[in-house]
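Quick one, tokens below. Sequence please?
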């Protein structure tokens, strides 16, 4: 017996209407739309766009992670680099600043090199440096683990790291040091003054501060793109990537294989780089969806760079301001959906904000808004020379126009080296350095190329500062890098502190070398499947000539005295 479809459907349709009526009453009456975060049946749904509670948590944790890595590097390496017996002691540096300003520690000296070390006892500089690094590690660990921060904690991290950067001299001369300080400065104003809560209801994330982060990532990427277009011709010829993987400061294993890619892949990489750095930054100003796309593309780009080389924590740090492009609706997938979770609490806050009248402004909120407006004016004022630099055909990169490094210029790889050269330090126990029978043995650094058979390292986001400076030193002469002679003297004495910066001491367990020299080599990647690769060699190297002649510890006595460096005591062990 055939049934009538519409007639049979009538009871079901009536049931649907009754259910819809109940849902309407729950939502505020018949015909009322469901509230934010509710689906038509009154159940919790996705987060609404336009709030940034979860964004702040992700951003602060990401920033705390970078601080943690930076302070970890400082704790492991500062004593050897700028400590009491470091390669460039910061005590001597501070004394030179003090003498320049007529021996006074006044405003001029402090503003030239802002650091809390001016207030501490210089007779135990190693302890001071360790204390700053350990305090930074402790505070950044707390923020990283809990996701809670206030202005006091974030300001503490900023002051501590600024104190190290401003006495770090050449070891802290990299662009990411200023970038971390600028990012960290903005992070101070993202938090409540005292409250330690992941969701401080009375202190919603400031749109001004979020735009400060977006302005930062805009300048970073656009500056990097413009310096390339105005710099090395190979960026305009699309040939820079033919050389980059092999000649970058500290290649990793992936760089070895990426270097072997076909020429058309390298052309595509260069075009993609120009698109991400010169076009994508403007997406920030084109509405929410394009801003989210900008953040996703920039983070993807930084991940690719992390995979392809050891660029310290630079790429990890560059991801941090990109997080400000995402709102809670975008980042909700990172958080669990349980009733006790942060995502659920933010959803409830959105519902309450949609239903209730806006709360009256409290005195603290008024003060906070005034502070954020003052921050906007300050950043705008300090951005004037930065923008003029971006527009200038003689653009300079990685430069600060103020001692606090609040707003800076950025850029990377404006020029690409077409061949890789390395300085190899060698020692010998022979009494006569010029004897043809002298056996010279290589010192190996932690990460930079040395032994052709050693696989390239993988250390990002960690950073070996000495390895990077050795890469720069290979472009110059030892006269431009006096610290390398200081290092040679310490190695002649088997100095334990200096040796801790290296991977291999060929004289371990025996008397130190009598002579030490620097040799200049040209390095190239071996070809996969070739005879050298089959023999286990990642690199081919060819001697160019001497970098500095053989020196003995006695030869360096006057040199050490002229620089007021302590003469290294010989350690036979």
């Amino acid at each position: 017996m055939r049934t009538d479809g519409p007639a049979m459907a009538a009871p079901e349709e009536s049931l649907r209407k009754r259910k819809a009526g109940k849902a309407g009453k729950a939502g505020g009456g018949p015909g009322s739309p469901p509230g934010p975060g509710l689906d038509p049946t009154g159940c919790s749904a996705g987060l609404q766009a336009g709030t940034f509670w979860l964004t702040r948590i992700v951003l602060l944790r990401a920033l705390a992670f970078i601080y943690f890595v930076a302070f970890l590097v400082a704790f492991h390496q500062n004593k050897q680099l700028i400590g009491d017996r470091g390669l460039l002691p910061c005590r001597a540096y501070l004394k030179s600043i003090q003498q320049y300003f007529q021996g006074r520690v006044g405003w001029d000296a402090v503003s030239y090199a802002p650091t809390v070390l001016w207030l501490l006892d210089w007779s135990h500089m190693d302890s001071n440096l360790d204390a700053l690094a350990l305090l930074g590690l402790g505070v950044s660990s707390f923020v990283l683990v809990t996701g809670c921060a206030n202005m006091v904690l974030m300001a503490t991290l900023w002051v501590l790291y600024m104190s190290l950067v401003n006495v770090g001299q050449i070891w802290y001369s990299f662009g990411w040091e200023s970038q971390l300080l600028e990012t960290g400065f903005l992070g101070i104003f993202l938090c409540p003054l005292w409250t330690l809560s992941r969701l401080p209801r009375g202190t919603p994330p400031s749109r001004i501060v979020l735009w400060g982060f977006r302005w930062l990532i805009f300048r970073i990427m656009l500056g990097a793109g413009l310096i390339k277009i105005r710099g090395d011709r190979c960026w305009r010829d699309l040939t820079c990537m033919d050389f980059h993987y092999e000649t970058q400061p500290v290649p990793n294993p992936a760089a070895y294989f990426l270097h072997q890619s076909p020429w058309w892949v390298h052309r595509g990489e260069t075009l993609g780089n120009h698109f991400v750095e010169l076009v994508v930054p403007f997406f920030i100003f084109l509405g929410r969806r394009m801003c989210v796309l900008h953040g996703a593309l920039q983070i993807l780009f930084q991940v690719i760079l992390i995979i392809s080389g050891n660029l310290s924590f630079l790429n990890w740090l560059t991801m941090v301001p990109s997080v400000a492009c995402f709102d809670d609706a975008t980042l909700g997938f990172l958080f669990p959906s349980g009733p006790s979770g942060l995502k659920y609490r933010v959803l409830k806050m959105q519902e309450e904000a949609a239903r209730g009248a806006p709360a009256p402004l409290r005195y603290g909120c008024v003060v906070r808004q005034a502070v954020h407006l003052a921050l906007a004016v300050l950043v705008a004022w300090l951005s004037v020379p930065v923008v003029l630099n971006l527009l200038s055909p003689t653009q300079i990169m990685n430069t600060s126009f103020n001692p606090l490094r609040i707003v800076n210029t950025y850029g990377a790889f404006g020029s690409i080296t077409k061949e890789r050269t390395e300085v190899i330090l060698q020692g010998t126990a022979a009494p006569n350095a010029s004897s043809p029978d002298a056996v010279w043995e290589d010192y190996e650094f932690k990460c930079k190329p040395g032994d052709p058979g050693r696989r390239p390292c993988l250390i990002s986001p960690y950073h070996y500062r000495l390895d990077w400076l050795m890469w720069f030193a290979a472009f110059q002469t030892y006269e431009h890098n006096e610290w390398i002679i200081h290092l040679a003297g310490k190695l002649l004495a088997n100095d334990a502190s200096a040796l801790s910066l290296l991977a291999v001491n060929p004289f371990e367990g025996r008397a130190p070398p009598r002579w030490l020299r620097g040799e200049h080599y040209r390095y190239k990647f071996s070809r996969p499947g070739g005879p050298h690769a089959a023999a286990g060699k990642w690199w081919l190297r060819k001697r160019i000539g001497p970098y500095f002649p053989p020196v003995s510890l006695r030869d360096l006595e006057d040199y050490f005295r002229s620089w007021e460096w302590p003469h290294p005591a010989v350690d036979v062990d």
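DSSP finds 22 helices and six strands in the chain. Residues 420-563 form one domain.
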